[in-house]
Amino acid sequence: MKKTFERRALLAHLSRSAAALALCSLFGSSPGQRPVPTPLAPRFDNYPFTLGVASGMPRPASVVLWTRLAPRPLDQGGGLPPRPLVVRWELADDENFGRLVTSGEQLALPEHGHSVHVQVEGLESGRMFFYRFLCGDAVSPIGRTRTAPAEDAPVQRLRFALASCQHYEQGHYAAHREIASRDLDFVLFVGDYIYESSHPSFMVRRHEGPPPTRLEAFRRRHATYKLDHDLRAAHAAHPWILTWDDHEVENDYAGEHSRFGGDPQHFLRRRAAAYKAYFEHLPIAPERAPVGPAMRIHDRYSWGRLAELWTLDGRQYRSPQACPEDGPVRGGRVLTDCAAMAEVGRSVFGTEQEQWLESGLHTSTRTWKLLAQASQLSSWGVDTPLGRSVYSDAWDGYPAARERLLRGMADAGLRDVIALGGDVHRHVAAQLRLASNDPASPIVASEFVTSSITSRGLPGVATALIRAANPDLLHARGDERGYAMIDLRPQQARCEFRATAFPVAEQARLHTQAAFVVESGRAGVQRDV
Length: 529
Known about the structure:
Layout: H1 2-12, H2 16-26, E1 53-56, E2 63-68, E3 85-92, E4 100-108, E5 115-120, E6 128-135, E7 138-139, E8 143-146, E9 158-163, H3 174-181, E10 186-189, H4 215-226, H5 229-237, E11 239-242, H6 264-280, E12 299-303, E13 307-311, E14 334-335, H7 351-363, E15 368-372, E16 382-384, E17 387-391, H8 399-411, E18 417-421, E19 427-433, E20 443-449, H9 460-469, E21 473-477, E22 480-489, E23 492-501, E24 511-519, E25 526-527
Parallel strand pairs: 1-11, 9-10, 10-11, 13-15, 15-18, 18-20
Antiparallel strand pairs: 1-2, 2-5, 3-4, 3-6, 6-7, 6-8, 9-22, 12-13, 14-17, 16-17, 19-20, 19-21, 22-23, 23-24, 24-25
Helix pairs in contact: 3-5, 4-6
């Protein structure tokens, strides 16, 4: 807590304007261009904490707390005037806040949507805490969070929910209601937190407007999702660790390239707006705020000596999909003959991130190595009379990048690597081999992929064809929605696939679709009987 108190002492000696200038700098803006207005002493006509509270990025001595003031969240500026607001935050040992651990004040600035990101440092490791925000006469809901264990702690268990793909229009968030009620260390969300697009054939409830392209529209889209009470409950119940996929910006985008082609600078303006709104609505450290269209989301987390987790970015540095179709829409498509896919230099993570991950895997001394990325790493192409058909936006469309990743694991002699993914809207348990689906090729890692929270999956016939063509898939079902429950212990990792029917009804209950285990020291998944 020493650093927290030092920071509070420093801010106490700054004027409100100077504090605002410093905060603007943290958020990657250019505050020197105009004076900062005097902060308001607010009196709210409407409750300002409509979007709830959240925490994330749990470290052994720190955690990030988040909220956003928005009394009318779908209005311009969240229904607030363009003036700074002083927000107080409190962290306590108990939910009655009788044993306050630390507290402070921060300015909620209009240029950042009146969002608040507090990185609370100097905390005791491996502890649960409660937190809240206060502004004027309004008090936020109470959130619960925890710090990670000390890096050298002999941790015996880690439990987390793996989730992705929560298309608001295609169902309700019953999975988040169950996640909120479970005893978890954190939630790991691996992409498609919002959807920029609609599909009228599967609409259960509606987005607030057309596909967003500018900042205010992306803010409204995020607010629509946060207004769901089950999603807010899951955020308030547990800290979250996040990475993204494509729908946070635009379906199938790759690096600076839009699926609709056109001027990359035009697309980068959209990406900048999307990244900024993403940051403003999630518990991400202030130092990770985007600068224009760039934002670092890949990161590393530890859970004592039990596990190390890498969150990976498969969009910002991705090579464009190979063999794009001539026409107005590019992006991913099904291909049977495209030599360009095998080009060695093509990458999902980009060279720098690939090297960073390889170095981390080779030097990790923890029992389990977890790779959190957006999609399904194992092959899921289908054999046809014209050859094997693959989807060019999937890992199958980047075979050299996949081979580099798995070859690095094999060369290092790693056996306890588990790839965790989402995106494909199906529960998957798979073996990861150097040569996909070749029983003579060694298994070098294991894979669990979660189904979607709500987004529609492939029909049963299509999924059956995928299973038949890929014997490395021990389990693959796309007819049900849900999440994966991951339970790590020193000797075993267990994945329980929780599921319910599509479309997800508001009062749906989930069941266990299947469960699989990975034994420590032995790469590969086994059915849990």
